[in-house]
Amino acid sequence: MSDDDRGSDDYCLIDAARPPRADGPPYAECVLCREPTEYAESYKGITMCPRCEWQEAQRTACSG
User: Fold this and answer.
1) What is the mean pLDDT of residues 37-54?
2) What is the pTM of this model?
């Protein structure tokens, strides 16, 4: 398999599924800091604001 056949995320083993963005309010609260997120309030699951998403990505990033 060549590099062209693989997607850019093939190297990452972490599932990075994100909820769909909301078209407008009401927005879901971040599960960490309780700030509004960019996701719909009706979404069932864990939602984080962009700042907490970035911090979580830094915390769980591969260091090798």
Assistant:
1) 87
2) 0.57
